[in-house]
Each structure stands twice: as structure tokens, then as C-alpha cells.
Amino acid sequence: TSRSPSGGPLLTPSQSLDGAGGRRSGYITIGYRGSYTIGREAQADAKFRRVARITVCGKTALAKEVFGETLNESRDPDRPPERYTARYYLKFNFLEQAFDRLSEAGFRMAACSSTGTCAFAPEQGGPADDKIWTSYTEYVFCRD
């Protein structure tokens, strides 16, 4: 068999290692809802709200490997390691921190998608011309 520069076997993308210290191939999707307000005539000072919750979708074993103790499993506590779930979320609210952890674990971004809706907000005490935009964004990461 061929060997990598570190002396280990070269793996094709369809193969994975299991066990202690092994790297599994797979996908993890990070999602979040966001909102922001744009005032009259699309002023440059849009007001962004912080990310309330970052959700995690993927195989339980991969999510635990990448996020460890920062993974909140309370919504799906007894999920088997090789099963998928979309019910986990992170205990922190910074996308950059999630991206750093994924990068350090050998994941790369494969795709992203975002949707948005707009609603006027005068009933919420804002000026009649203010609009509140809400969005949902997902980032798909993979590791071969």
C-alpha cells in the first residue's frame, strides 16, 4: 500500500479511519438564524442582532469529535455515534469559533446557502420606514 509523508496509509475519499486517534470522513452542517434592521433609504448603519444559536447537523461521532464539550446534546441525548442528527447546537454563539474548530479538525467548506425575508416593523415601535430582515444560513463542511 502507498504511504503518506507521515508514514500512515493513503486513504481514498470513500475510506475512513475509526477508533482512537482516527479520522472519519463525513459532513457537518452549521446553521443559524439572524436578523437585522435597515432604516430609511438603506442607511449604512444597519443594526445587526447577535446570533442566538448555532445548530449542528451531522453524524453524532463527528460532531462530538470536532466540538467536544461545547456541543449541547440536550435535544437528542442518546443518539448512537454513527447516526445523523440535526438537533444539536453549540454552547457558544460565534461562527468564527465554529469555523476554526472545523478547520483544525481537517474540514473544509463545501457549500453554503442563505434565505431571507423582510417585514416592516412600525408595530414594534420603530419608524414607519424601518424594515426587519430575517435570514437562515447554512454552511456545509466536509472532510475526506
Automatic annotation (TrEMBL):
Region (Disordered): 1-22
Cell compartments where the protein resides: Cell membrane; Cell projection, Neuron projection
Domain KCTD8/12/16 H1: 26-143
A cellular component term, taken from the record's GO annotations: neuron projection
Pfam families named in the record: H1_KCTD8_12_16
Source organism, top-level taxon: Eukaryota
BP GO terms, sorted: regulation of G protein-coupled receptor signaling pathway
Keywords for the protein's UniProt record, in alphabetical order: Cell membrane, Cell projection, Membrane, Phosphoprotein
Annotated protein name in UniProt: KCD12 protein
Species of origin: Nycticryphes semicollaris
